What does this fold into?
Amino acid sequence: MIAAVSSGSGKTTVTVSLLEALKRRGYTPVSFKCGPDYIDPMFHRTVLEIDSLNLDSYFMSEEEIIETLSRYGGDISVIEGVMGIYDGLDTASDRGSCYEIARITKSPVILVVNAAGLGRTITSVIKGVLSDDTENLIHGIILNRISDSFYDKLLPYLKGEIAAIRDDVSVIGHIPDNKDIHIDSRHLGLTLPHEIDGIREMISKGADLIEQYCDIDRIIEISQNCCGI
It folds into this structure.
């Protein structure tokens, strides 16, 4: 699962870039989306040319969620989260959240953190999210929209702080801010894929970036060795 601290963190961009990168490596990925959202799956379809399925704990039972993932999953399944990782139907539980979906399906989570406008506080945000990960589902961190120089400066401290809490969480890498792979938002969600000129080129550039700056092999290793229904 690709989850995030909040909406606007870059989940969809990371998801489609990762799907394209996995295709380049010879995988046949299948994608899913948490909740009833229909726009993000359009982006998944642009990459995979097959439908992306929804996993929604409000409309579906746990058994239906597990059956859907088991029946339609490919040699690697990528689930895109929704909103913040713990955001759901109320403020007192994870009901309706993508974390609930991850827990039901026992899916390892890669947490995307929007680092724009933050400094050392990035570490505090990540530590706070990890403290609520009661099932130890988060296994990777990707810092989005962060400069190479600051990432290199922050990384030793960030790794040390994470290691003091968990020994099974990897910093997968980072993605520098790049306007060429930005997907605009509007009041009903993201701009639709067919409204974006050069959408295929944008996705290809995103895959180039995630391959250059993130450890794809580690993501694949996490998907194979962690959790799983």
User: Anything to note?
Assistant: Residues 148-163 form the longest helix (16 residues). The CA atoms of residues 169 and 223 lie 13 Å apart. The chain has eight helices and nine strands. The mean pLDDT is 92.
